[in-house]
Write a sequence for this structure.
């Protein structure tokens, strides 16, 4: 059947346009908060009923809307924020298209009250699309927007949104995000008559973090700051010990606007590489202040996506700033979690650095130990420790006294707060990772010559990128070259890599070349693989001297509490936990 082309009627056009802006109740809350912030409000109250479907009311103390502009504000593309195409390239407000109130009025019962300056307050009621009524009312300075019966005229939309609890959760997340991005504004959120969130607008980001996430998380956030060449970054990021199973608590703002930018998300995750396990994500609250002319916010109807004039540079600055903050925090901050908040009787990952304290010899524990030496650790200890000490000398672990080895896998030690278990493979992996990264930066990877060269046969697919593989091997301290159509001859290998691990490492390298097109990401993965393959393994017996040497080297690394894959290197069982387990303490 042939269908004739015909123009759409105005009501259908209105609803289509509204669908781009108003996807669900949280979209309404977002647009109304944007308007309140643009009106210089210092206090914003949000009231929600039935997940926002029955009622959304946003009240602010901003500048208000003059009576003569009230009817204009619900017309399509009517705005006070831009006046010419040139203004689109220097937007410094959150809203600018003049679509929000028009779109909301198209799918709800909308009422706006506002008072501007010394003028009396006015109320605009949208009776139906294009049909409004305005009257004078008494009210304080500011604006009150009331949205009732959302999607009453587009019931099909209700099939695509969640129930009241789900939608209320989305609204809560939206308000939390704005509260974190605007600490100078007091926010209050009430859902079905119950207060869900309150911040006090004192301008302190940490206070907002405490209100949103709680005091324990607030106390384990570290500041990030950068200012140079028209880019300024302010905010807080979590220590690696505080993490999430998804990215929902990574909050990035550009000039106060909450945004989603893949390049920034990638840079943030990379800054935590080797500090968090796969599938774990940090808590991040950062605000980038960039001249508006260098940011394009007119990319998507929701205004959540942005582009920068130089995406790569901005992402690089964000990544370096966070990484630097983490390194400085590991060197100087005592961020141990409060003992009283720990699960009773459970070992926990060491959160961070510790205060120095002496250990009394009379409380020493006696554990059977080995006198055997492990040549691989001894051969790396002096060189690795001295090179790391050049950069970092501040202690980042508690003073530990080695007592012995358990299951040929874990080093047991005594410290100022109790007992500590160190995963020997994870600890050595962290030491080697930072050593490898430093050598790769300087192109000075130590090598060892093989008495008998290795000839490695590649698979058909691997042979297709043989040149890249050979180049990468030579950069990593190998001496390798093509040897026929599908073979590589290897004459030297990195000094830290055991010969028996060469084949497995080259397999890892082939996968990394195949999986990672991004050079930086691939090099990080290669360094992690080389550190993992080169580190001592579980099941290897160590002498007391080797265990002491391993802990000394670990203490000199930048990030001693996590292995190259983000797993913990050290666990703690505090004295108070031991006393509870033995019934000495209630």
């Amino acid at each position: 059947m042939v269908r004739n082309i015909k123009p759409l009627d105005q009501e259908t056009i209105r609803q289509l346009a509204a669908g781009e802006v108003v996807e669900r109740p949280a979209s309404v809350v977002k647009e109304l908060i944007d308007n309140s912030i643009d009106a210089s409000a210092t206090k914003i109250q949000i009231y929600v009923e039935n997940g926002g479907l029955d009622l959304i009311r946003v009240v602010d103390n901003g500048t208000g809307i003059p009576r003569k502009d009230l009817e204009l504000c619900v017309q399509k593309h009517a705005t006070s924020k831009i006046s010419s195409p040139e203004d689109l390239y220097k937007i410094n407000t959150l809203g600018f298209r003049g679509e929000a109130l028009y779109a909301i009025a198209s799918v709800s019962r909308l009422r706006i009250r506002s008072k501007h300056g010394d003028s009396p307050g006015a109320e605009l009621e949208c009776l139906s699309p294009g049909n409004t009524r305005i009257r004078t009312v008494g009210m304080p300075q500011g604006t009150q927007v009331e949205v009732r019966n959302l999607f009453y005229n587009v019931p099909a939309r209700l099939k695509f949104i969640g129930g009241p609890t789900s939608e209320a959760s989305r609204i809560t997340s939206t308000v939390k995000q704005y509260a974190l991005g605007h600490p100078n504004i007091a926010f209050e959120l009430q859902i079905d008559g119950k207060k869900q969130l309150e911040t006090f607008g004192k301008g302190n980001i940490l206070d907002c973090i405490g209100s949103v996430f709680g005091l324990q998380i607030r106390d384990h956030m570290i500041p990030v700051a950068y200012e140079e060449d028209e880019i300024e970054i302010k905010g807080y990021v979590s220590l690696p010990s505080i993490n999430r199973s998804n990215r929902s608590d990574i909050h990035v703002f550009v000039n106060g606007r909450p945004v989603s930018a893949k390049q920034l998300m990638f840079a943030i995750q990379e800054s935590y590489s080797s500090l968090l396990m796969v599938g774990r994500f940090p808590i991040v609250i950062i605000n980038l202040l960039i001249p508006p002319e260098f940011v394009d916010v007119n990319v998507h109807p929701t205004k959540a996506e942005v582009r920068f004039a130089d995406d790569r540079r901005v992402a690089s600055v964000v990544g370096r700033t966070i990484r630097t903050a983490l390194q400085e925090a590991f060197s100087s901050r005592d961020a141990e979690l409060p003992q009283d908040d720990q699960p009773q009787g459970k070992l926990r990952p060491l959160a961070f650095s510790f205060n120095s304290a002496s250990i009394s010899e009379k409380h020493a524990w006696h554990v059977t130990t080995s006198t055997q030496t492990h040549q691989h650790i001894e051969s790396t200890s002096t060189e690795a420790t001295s090179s790391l000490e050049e950069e970092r000398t501040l202690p980042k672990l508690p003073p530990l006294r080695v007592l012995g080895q358990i299951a040929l896998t874990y080093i047991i030690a005594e410290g100022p707060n109790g007992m500590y278990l160190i995963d020997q493979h994870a600890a050595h992996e962290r030491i080697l990772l930072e050593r490898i990264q430093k050598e790769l930066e300087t192109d000075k990877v130590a090598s060892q010559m093989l008495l008998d060269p290795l000839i490695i046969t590649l698979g058909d697919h691997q042979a297709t990128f043989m040149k890249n593989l050979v180049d990468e091997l030579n950069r990593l301290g190998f001496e390798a070259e093509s040897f026929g159509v599908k073979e590589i001859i290897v004459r030297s290998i990195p000094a830290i890599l055991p010969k028996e691990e060469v084949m497995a490492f080259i397999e890892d390298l082939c996968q990394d070349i195949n999986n990672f097109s991004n050079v930086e990401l691939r090099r990080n993965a290669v360094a992690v693989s080389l550190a993992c393959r080169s580190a001592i393994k579980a099941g290897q017996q160590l002498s007391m001297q080797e265990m002491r040497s391993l802990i000394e080297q670990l203490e000199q690394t930048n990030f001693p509490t996590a292995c190259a894959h983000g797993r913990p290197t050290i666990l703690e069982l505090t004295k108070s936990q031991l006393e509870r387990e033995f019934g000495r303490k209630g």
Q: What stands out?
A: Residues 349-446+495-586 form a domain with the formyl-coa transferase, domain 3 fold (CATH 3.30.1540.20). The radius of gyration is 30 Å. The chain has a mean pLDDT of 80. Residues 418 and 574 are 4 Å apart (CA to CA).
